[in-house]
């Protein structure tokens, strides 16, 4: 890495910390207010504000007003004012190139701020302490002491992040980026500088231009000249909108290097000269030494050795005065080369010896710092790793929390939906049961009406004694009907008993007009059930519409069986058949409308809804040799058990 570029970058540390838009109008206004201020603490604050505004215009005035603030603070025992005064003195000392004094002032400021922090940990005090640490980092940076610079910047960064002072955070990020740049860790340097640039852009910070200059300098050093010029031009536009002379002086140096690389000597000289004039105006010997060196080097390349000599001599004088070893090393080497070119071997040798001495000092200093730097880097990487792991755990916790919340919500929704479905099914079942009961209420009067009609006919035809026997069977049948018709199911054996009584009554009524048989297979279990009064209407139809109209006697069979998990109920008669029965009904004046089939179909639909299984009815007209020989009704019901 070029030592010259290191010097450029090191300068940036101080600048990025400073505020460069002080105006004479503000200073005059504060001075007028000062004449009317009677309270000491208010006067101290006014002195410090004036000192801070003067630092970019006249560093000597900064020292003057800062000293007034310090003296009055000591007299009034105002610790905060004293700490601020030390910071202002330190900043003025940096600009004037007096780094040892600057360090002393910043260390004194840290001591005073820490006294206040013990009693008052407010934002203003923490900001002051952070500023003292950051300014110390600036001095160590310009002295090439990267280890102490990094430590001070880290302390400042912690404080600024705690109080959420984003503008200052961006400046520290910028400075840490430059530390990494000086270590040739360019990816890390760009990472920090671009973070700083992002914050500065969001805040509209003036120092955004300096950060852009830093980024451009890294691209230039890594031979990405096009990218470098892009960032330099962006910085130049921003500098045109503010009065940041120090920043623009730095940019001019960078542009001089760029055009020198592009072999545009005139533009390179123009920008180096602009940079020198600005630094001399600001009394900044550090920047001026660098600009003088650059101009001398440009003239050396053009073999204008006599013209280059005064620039090189002045560059060395400034470098020695401010104690910057890197610039001393470069200036001594340049002077040795110039004297050699001018055939002055004695002077060339003397400066060469000084160059070697400076080089050895830098090597020794660098070697001693490498071990400490390695330790600092290790600790820094360790901190970063711990922070990364902590962030990773926090992200994982957040992700798992969100997933857990989503799963919980999903579970609640599923449970709620199931409850709703269950509720709907329950309501549906209850509705179906009420409909079933309503149909029972329709069926019972219908059945009783038919039975009473039969009893009336029986009394007329058979006399009182036979009627009593009929009534006995009827009462038994009614008792069974009333006992089981209230429930949704009746045991099969009770259904068979009811059918037996009913058929016996009808047989008596119609003078043994038919025979009947009721059968149940072994597959029918005792605790199976079926809806009450479901079979009786079909048996009644078999008698009235099948057997009675037939000439001669007939037979009715009722059969119960189980097939494929279905209860099969079959009612068969050998009567006149469906077609003939229908024809007789149409021609009969006294025919009544039968409700049995319609009610039964509705009951089967309800049964399907409750059990979620099919319930079917099939009516078949029996034939033999093209002759109607009866009717068969088949009911296929889901198997249900009575608990």
UniProtKB/TrEMBL annotation:
Q: Which Gene3D superfamilies match?
A: Histidine kinase-like ATPase, C-terminal domain, Tetratricopeptide repeat domain
Question: Does the keyword section mention Glycoprotein?
Answer: no
Q: Which residues form the Histidine kinase/HSP90-like ATPase domain?
A: 534-640
Limits of the Signal transduction histidine kinase internal region domain: 435-514
- Gene Ontology cellular-component annotations: membrane
Q: Which UniProt keywords apply?
A: Membrane, Signal, TPR repeat, Transmembrane, Transmembrane helix
Q: Record's PROSITE patterns?
A: TPR
The residue spans of each TPR repeat are 130-163, 170-203, 209-242
GO function terms (MF aspect):
phosphorelay sensor kinase activity
State the signal peptide span: 1-22
Kindly list the residue ranges recorded as spanning the membrane: 397-416
What PANTHER family does the annotation carry?
A: SENSOR HISTIDINE KINASE YPDA
Protein name (record): Tetratricopeptide repeat-containing protein
Q: Tell me the organism.
A: Flavobacterium defluvii
């Amino acid at each position: 890495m070029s030592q010259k570029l290191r010097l450029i970058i090191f300068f940036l540390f101080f600048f990025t910390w400073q505020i460069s838009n002080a105006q004479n109008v503000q200073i005059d206004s504060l001075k007028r207010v000062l004449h009317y201020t009677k309270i000491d603490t208010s006067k101290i604050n006014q002195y410090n504000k004036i000192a801070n505004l003067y630092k970019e215009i006249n560093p000597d005035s900064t020292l003057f007003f800062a000293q007034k603030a310090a003296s009055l603070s000591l007299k009034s025992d105002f610790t905060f004012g004293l700490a601020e005064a030390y910071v202002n003195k330190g900043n003025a000392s940096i600009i004037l190139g007096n780094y040892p004094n600057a360090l002393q002032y910043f260390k004194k400021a840290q001591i005073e701020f820490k006294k206040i922090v013990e009693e008052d940990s407010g934002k203003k005090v923490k900001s002051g302490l952070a500023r003292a640490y950051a300014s110390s980092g600036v001095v160590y940076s310009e002295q090439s002491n990267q280890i102490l610079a990094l430590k001070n910047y880290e302390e400042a960064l912690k404080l600024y992040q705690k109080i959420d002072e984003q503008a200052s955070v961006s400046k520290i990020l910028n400075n840490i980026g430059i530390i990494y740049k000086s270590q040739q860790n360019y990816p890390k340097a760009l990472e920090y500088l671009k973070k700083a640039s992002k914050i500065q852009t969001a805040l509209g910070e003036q120092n955004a231009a300096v950060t852009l200059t830093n980024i451009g300098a890294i691209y230039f050093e890594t031979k990405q000249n096009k990218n470098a010029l892009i960032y330099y031009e962006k910085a130049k536009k921003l500098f045109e909108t503010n009065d940041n002379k120090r920043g623009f002086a730095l940019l001019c140096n960078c542009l001089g290097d760029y055009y020198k690389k592009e072999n545009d000597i005139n533009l390179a000289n123009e920008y180096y000269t602009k940079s020198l004039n600005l630094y001399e105006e600001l009394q900044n010997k550090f920047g001026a030494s660098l600009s003088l060196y650059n101009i001398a080097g440009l003239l050396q390349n053009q073999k204008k050795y006599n013209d280059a000599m005064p620039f090189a001599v002045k560059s060395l004088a400034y470098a020695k005065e401010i104690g910057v070893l890197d610039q001393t090393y470069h200036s001594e080497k340049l002077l040795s080369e110039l004297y050699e070119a001018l055939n002055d071997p004695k002077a060339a040798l003397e400066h060469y010896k000084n160059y070697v001495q400076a080089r050895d000092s830098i090597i020794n200093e660098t070697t001693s710092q490498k071990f400490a730097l390695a330790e600092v880097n290790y600790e820094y990487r360790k901190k970063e790793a711990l922070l990364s792991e902590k962030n990773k755990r926090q992200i994982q916790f957040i992700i798992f929390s969100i997933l857990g919340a989503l799963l919980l919500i999903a579970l609640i929704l599923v449970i709620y939906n199931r409850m709703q479905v269950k509720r709907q099914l329950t309501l549906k079942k209850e509705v179906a049961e009420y409909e079933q009961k309503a149909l029972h209420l329709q069926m019972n009067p219908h059945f009783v009406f038919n039975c009473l009609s039969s009893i009336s006919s029986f009394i007329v035809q058979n006399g009182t004694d036979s009627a009593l026997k009929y009534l006995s069977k009827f009462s038994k049948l009614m008792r069974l009907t009333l006992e089981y018709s209230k429930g949704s199911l009746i045991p099969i054996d009770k259904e068979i008993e009811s059918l037996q009584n009913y058929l016996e009554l009808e047989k008596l009524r119609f003078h043994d007009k038919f025979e009947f048989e009721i059968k149940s297979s072994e597959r029918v279990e005792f605790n199976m059930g079926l809806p009450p009064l479901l079979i009786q209407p079909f048996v009644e139809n078999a008698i009235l519409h099948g057997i009675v109209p037939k000439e001669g006697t007939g037979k009715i069979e009722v059969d119960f069986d189980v097939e494929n998990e279905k209860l099969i109920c079959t009612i068969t008669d050998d009567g006149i058949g469906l077609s003939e029965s229908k024809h007789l009904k149409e021609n009969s004046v006294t025919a009544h409308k039968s409700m049995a089939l319609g009610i039964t179909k509705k009951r089967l639909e309800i049964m399907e809804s409750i059990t979620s299984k099919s319930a079917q009815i099939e009516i078949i007209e029996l034939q033999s040799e093209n002759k109607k020989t009866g009717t068969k009704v088949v009911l296929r019901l889901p198997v249900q058990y009575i608990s």
